[in-house]
Design a protein that fits this description.
heterodimer, A: about 260 residues, alpha/beta, six-stranded mixed β-sheet, four-stranded antiparallel β-sheet, B: about 300 residues, MetI-like fold, 11 helices, about 75% helix
């Protein structure tokens, strides 16, 4: 879906072109076209089962972990088709944060260092520096700097989720995917994650799936509304929520179904 | 009134359960005490020294459990050394989807491994004697010929001995290890796998760096349970190990003995002090196995099963 004229100055980071995704013979994502803008937050909303999480997981080829899945069309990351790259390479370039915080059963430090280590970073100084930077970027450094050797499971749920964000940031992802990152958190932890996402604007391209429309309003620059596997409408967040072009979008954002 | 009747039923039920539990404890304690009583002549005569002593000539009242204890520990540990990598490897293949095995095939593989545990010990022994030992002959001869200067292969292969016993023991404990490793890996949060892959790890890196460490303590507990089984395994080992209880022989090609095989071999003709010595051996074996089991339980209790701390 093409954006209005006033966005032309912003660079496109990723472009979904005529894209479909299949579980077996079931077409879960239907002919989607979408542009993800560089260093902006783009949210994907829609009722349960609309395909928003399925589409998100196409960006880092998570579906490749399961048999019987198939992609069609293109997802271009700076003119390179993600779907023809090695999925491991894709996941090295595109980070992901999940619904439930899922730290590794390792120390706080090792949780962040893991991604660097599998990329072959051996220099201790470099690892220390990048772990610290990632924890600072994820706004959790002050809380954990004195206990980096503690097990990550000793952190609270909200802290664990910020740790997972730091883990994803440590390897400088080109896009960071969030899959309903606050659905398992209490309101205070949710607010801190939202603040963090807003703070990351301008530094990293973010694509976030949320079931919470207010969250999309609060944190995203652009919003894609999906329904039954199709992309119904994509525009600036304020346009989607105040002045949507499609009837279905207007009905959904006003709470008439969902 | 009806409530009163139900409460009596409740109390009766609880009492019966308590009685059953008590009975188990009583049997265990009684078993231990009668073993001590029966072993007492040997304990009084030899003290702790019998455990480490070497030599076995019942007609001259010469006894020593050292070689059998050595054989017990060495055969158990070597069998685990072989079975752990294979068992954990099989568990990884069945749980970690390195290849997309269809569910049915996974089920069949799991069933076949479990079936290994159901084969009676005596069948393993018979197979060992008439199939494994003849098949090992050329290999053992080659090992002795080429590596004969090395203490592990310093003696010629006589058929029954440590090597075939270890190989069959390894086969026998394999299902325990594979089953526990499978359970341990299977009980990990699925999200953990996905998380590691999402950071850019290959399947193998995820297994090595995240999943195995997470499941490690539980797998170790399972390995110790398997060790407990191997230490006490009697029939197959007795049939295969050669039963030479009077000296410690480091060569894997030489016959040896274990406490269990010693008891099984000698109890029929034992008289007087020899019976007490065998009872002493039974106590040593009991202590060894109980210690290993206790350690295993301790390790399994120590970490929560999923490795997932607070919610």
């Amino acid at each position: 879906m093409e954006l209005a004229q006033d966005q032309l100055g912003t660079q496109v980071k990723a472009q979904v072109k005529n894209f479909s995704f299949f579980y077996g013979s079931n077409k879960a994502i239907k002919d989607v076209d979408l542009e993800v803008l560089d260093c902006k937050v783009t949210s994907m909303i829609g009722p349960s089962g609309c395909g928003k999480t399925t589409l998100l997981r196409c960006f880092n080829r998570m579906h490749d972990l399961y048999p019987g899945t198939r992609y069609e069309g293109e997802i271009l990351l700076e003119s390179q088709n993600l779907l023809s790259l090695d999925p491991i390479e894709v996941r090295m370039r595109i980070g992901m944060v999940f619904q439930k915080p899922n730290p590794f059963p390792k120390s706080i430090f090792e949780n962040i260092a893991y991604g660097l280590r599998i990329r072959g970073v051996k220099d201790k100084g470099v690892i220390n520096e990048r772990v610290e930077r990632a924890l600072r970027d994820a706004a959790i450094w002050d809380e954990v700097k004195d206990r980096l050797k503690d097990m990550a499971f000793n952190l609270s749920g909200g802290q664990q989720q910020r740790l997972c964000i730091a883990r994803a940031l440590a390897t400088d992802p080109e896009i960071l995917l969030f899959d309903e990152p606050t659905s398992a958190l209490d309101p205070i932890a949710t607010a801190s994650i939202e603040e963090l996402v807003i703070g990351l604007k301008g530094k990293v391209t973010i694509l976030i799936v949320t079931h919470n429309m207010q969250q999309a309003v609060r944190i995203s620059d652009y919003t894609a509304f999906m329904y039954l596997g199709e992309l119904v409408e994509f525009d600036r967040t304020d346009v989607i929520f105040n002045n949507a072009a499609q009837q279905r979008t207007r009905e959904y954002v006003s709470g008439q179904f969902g | 009134m009806a409530l009163y009747g139900r409460k009596i039923g409740h109390r009766l039920g609880v009492s019966l359960l308590g009685l059953a539990a008590l009975l188990v404890a009583i049997v265990l304690v009684a078993l231990f005490l009668t073993l001590v009583v029966a072993a007492w002549p040997a304990i009084a005569r030899f003290g702790w020294g019998l455990i480490g002593a070497a030599g076995w000539a019942p007609n001259r009242q010469v006894f020593g459990l050292g070689p059998a204890l050595y054989g017990t520990v060495v055969s158990g540990v070597l069998a685990l050394g072989l079975a752990v990598p294979v068992g954990v490897g099989v568990a990884l293949l069945l749980t970690e989807e390195f290849v997309f095995l269809p569910r049915s095939l996974q089920g069949i593989c799991g069933f076949l491994i479990d079936l290994l545990a159901a084969i009676p010990s005596v069948v393993y022994g018979l197979w060992g004697i008439f199939v494994l030992i003849p098949a090992l002959g050329p290999l053992a001869a080659w090992l002795h010929g080429v590596l004969g200067d090395w203490v592990l292969f310093a003696t010629p292969f006589l058929g029954r001995g440590m090597l075939p016993a270890v190989l069959v023991l390894a086969l026998m404990v394999l299902p325990t290890i594979a089953a526990i490793a499978r359970q341990s890996l299977g009980s990990l949060d699925r999200e953990l796998r996905v998380a590691a892959m999402a950071v850019g790890a290959t399947r193998w890196e995820a297994v090595r760096g995240v999943l195995l460490p997470a499941a490690g303590t539980r797998i170790l507990g399972g390995v110790l349970l398997a060790l407990g089984r191997a230490l006490g395994e009697t029939m197959a080992v007795t049939m295969l190990i050669g039963n030479v209880p009077d000296r410690i022989e480091a060569s894997l090609l030489a016959p040896s003995s274990t406490i269990a095989s010693l008891i099984a071999n000698e109890f029929a003709e034992a008289r007087g002090l020899q019976v007490a010595v065998l009872m002493y051996g039974a106590l040593v074996l009991l202590g060894l196995v109980a210690g290993v089991h206790g350690l295993a339980e301790g390790i399994l209790q120590w970490r929560s099963p999923t490795g997932n701390g607070r919610p």
